[in-house]
Design goal:
This protein is globular. The two termini are about 35 Å apart. It contains ten helices and 16 strands. The protein folds into two domains: about 170 residues, Gcn5-related N-acetyltransferase (GNAT) (Aminopeptidase, 3-Layer(aba) Sandwich); about 180 residues, ph1033 like domains (ph1033 like fold), CATH 3.10.590.10. The chain is of the alpha+beta class. The strands form three sheets. Strands 1, 2, 3, 4, 5, 6, 7 and 8 form an eight-stranded mixed beta sheet that branches. The chain has a six-stranded mixed beta sheet with strand order 11-14-13-12-10-15. Strands 9-16 form a two-stranded parallel ribbon.
Length: about 375
């Protein structure tokens, strides 16, 4: 059952999205069913309160605003075998069902953030596929799912009416970086290390762990967890092209030598790169960058007006490392030399694979 989703595309927040909204893993028992957030679900689904109470101990993702107001909920359920309550039935497999999802949009990229959580969860649980039922009136939500590899499978008839069934077969590869997300092709690609300052790292890559212990990515508390990111810098990002693989490298926070404090944290895929000359106007640059950049509108305007060396890379945030990889390990184990500089540094695919292993990235994500 999916509630109304308002997926708005614009906003004017410090990091291009509302950083006060948190996606939190909790339980049904810790959420008040009498919250006004649930009024539409109660009105649309007979027995909703009884169903809610029956799930008291089950985990659920909740979206909380800065004042703790409930503004979103996502319930995921593992199902094994053939799914026979849809037409045609879904084949026998290990499925992740999007059981209940309601999003109240307020000019953020919340829908994309929640979809990332769905796919991260499916990979974490080693599912074969994901499916969701949605009323066709929610066209923006359907478009979002389709953008990332979901296809129309059939219909589901209930007392509430006829819903569209969308599925994502995680065994099928389209050889398209968005349709295949979060999987990424390695063979035949180029790979790079790209540096990012600590002040910007956490804002743009909140899932990327910065401690020494492994942690389940699915259980994070994230507030800027979108799929597409825009990186802006002064290095010649146009050296990279669509499909290239990028390991983001957080430079030292100066609390200790870079050998120990600079770390590789994330793997992304290039969607496209641009230079300042590719934008016809400041407005075009803002429209391209604002929603997915760590910079405010004022900062972006200043960059466009004052930075002669201005480059932009749009990437998908495919995976966070489960264990950080320090500069020392990159030098000693991945055999990356100190020079040339690591601001934008091409590496071999062998080095790329080795770094993913050190970072304990799910091996399933890398496809050939």
């Amino acid at each position: 059952m999916l509630g109304t989703s308002k997926l708005q595309q614009r906003g004017n927040h410090r990091f291009g999205f509302n950083v006060t909204r948190r996606l939190v893993l909790t339980t049904f028992g810790d959420i008040d069913v009498n919250d006004p957030f649930f009024d539409s679900l109660k009105a649309g689904y007979d027995g909703f309160e009884d169903w809610f109470a029956s799930k008291s101990g089950h985990e659920v993702f909740a979206v909380r605003d800065g004042d703790e107001t409930l503004s979103g909920m996502l319930y995921l359920k593992e199902e094994s075998g053939e799914i026979v309550d849809v037409e045609p039935p879904l084949p026998a497999a290990k499925w992740l069902k999007v059981g209940t999802m309601k999003i109240v949009g307020r000019g953020t990229k919340l829908g994309e953030r929640v979809l990332k959580k769905i796919l991260d969860s499916a990979i974490h649980l080693d599912c074969d596929g994901v499916y969701v039922t949605v009323f066709e009136v929610h066209g923006s939500l359907i478009d979002l799912f389709k953008r990332y590899g979901f296809v129309e499978h059939g219909r589901k008839i209930t007392q509430r009416g006829e819903e569209l069934v969308l599925k994502r077969d995680l065994q099928q590869i389209w050889h398209n970086s968005l349709l295949d997300y979060p999987f990424f092709k390695v063979k035949g690609r180029r790979a790079w290390i790209l540096a990012i300052y600590p002040d910007y790292h956490t804002a743009i890559f909140p899932d990327s762990i910065l401690n020494n212990e492994p942690e389940e990515i699915v259980k994070d508390v994230s507030h800027t967890n979108t799929i597409q990111k825009v990186y802006i810098g002064g290095v010649s990002l146009t050296r990279m092209t669509e499909g290239d693989l990028v390991i983001f490298y957080r430079t030292t926070d100066k609390q200790a030598p870079a050998f120990y404090r600079s770390v590789a944290t994330s793997v992304c895929v290039i969607q496209e790169t641009k230079s300042r000359a590719d934008f016809d106007s400041e407005t075009e640059f803002l429209e391209y960058s604002l929603q997915h950049s760590v910079f405010s509108e004022a900062e972006l305007r200043a960059k466009y007006r004052n930075d002669n060396r201005l480059y932009v890379a749009k990437v998908t945030y495919n995976a966070a490392f489960n264990r950080r990889v320090t500069r020392g390990r990159l030098l000693e184990e991945a055999l990356i030399t100190e020079h040339p500089r690591w601001d934008l540094r091409e590496i071999t695919l062998r080095q790329f694979r080795h770094i993913l292993e050190m970072g304990q990235v799910n091996a399933r994500l890398a496809i050939d």
